[in-house]
Predict the 3D structure of the following.
Amino acid sequence: VRLAVAVDPGLEPAALDAFNERVAQFEEENPDIAVEVQEYNWTATTFTAQLASSTLPDVFTVPFTDGRGLIERGQIAPIGDRVAELPYADSFNPNVAAAGSDADGTMWAVPIAAYGQGLHYNRTLFEEAGLNPDDPPTTWEEVREAAKTISEETGQAGYAMMTSGNTGGWILTTHAYTLGGRTEAVDGDTATATIDTPQVREALELLHTMRWEDDSMGAEFLYEWDSINQAFASGRIGMHISGGGNYGNLYTQNAIDPDDYGLAAVPLADDPDAGVLGGGTLAVVSADAEEPVIDAAVRWIDFFYLGKLTDQDAAVLNARTQAETGQPVGMPELPVFDQDTYDASREWIAEYVNVPLDQMAPYTEAVFGQPLLNEPTRSTQEVYALLDPVVQAVLTDEDADIDALLARAQESAQHLLDQE
């Protein structure tokens, strides 16, 4: 059986070596499977076309937000029976498992990673600006003040934000959540857009103030995930928000200096509805795959993605392989399985952990106590996409009419939700 699997494009040589070593280990354990490696990275702007043209690998990954739609449209292979036979099938964190399951609870997409958003910051820029990197901001006002200081003292962007490829809507929604807001309300089959709200307006007004009054956001306002990672890793950004487990990508694809890196919890307002946007990654199998390939694909998902979380030997083998090739081991993440399984997996790999966990303590010591909120579930990427230009307008037009922008976005979002 020939099985095409996904690998992130642009990996540093050592990271690619580590991946290829894992492929060799898999083929040794499964001599009936020949693995073909295909570069792939989910992006909103290209994924739909790749799906329609059947150019994706047999096994590929998607964000939690895509799971429901792919399942309902039958655009991925039904693997529920095979997943149910895995020895740890009953140990999935139910809140995480729901992202890859249909209405009957059958898993079509396997959760392989979960995260809560974090505030990534550059410790070196903090020090150059006279700020304490061990005491990062814990409120949005402190984020504003730190950003202004960093910009004035170093000449770099004190704070930056993704704005394109649906990421502007993603981060704006994250910000609104921290203030107690939401971008949709769902009651049974009815979904109502809640974009034109005080919390979303407050988030945009803060961005406008930081951009136009403080001049603390630099000069680049079309970042997406890849480009903001590059800029952050190269020391051009003081702070930005992204998934809390992003250090691995910053290190393997952007060669960040570990000494520069800091991670803190996102600031939460004093509001009972405030919380942290959480999400994650699902491994799925192409709907075009034949039965033998589907079998091989589930074996790959078990070996490459989940074995290291559920089996001590597999966890140690993966961690040792990663560590020996200089790859990061032990990034903070949220439990895909139950707490006992998670705690055990961390103990198995403890001796191989090589990431600067002490520099991530402001995140790890807080995130598990913060309310974790799911991303919007209806027309998620489409609504994120229509919010991108709202964020861009606020950052590029000093006279942007936030009220008008929100009113239009609210109307457009409701139209999308009504079509579901």
Remarks:
- The chain has a mean pLDDT of 95.
- The beta strands are 2-7, 34-39, 59-63, 110-122, 184-187, 190-193, 239-243, 261-265, 276-285, 372-374.
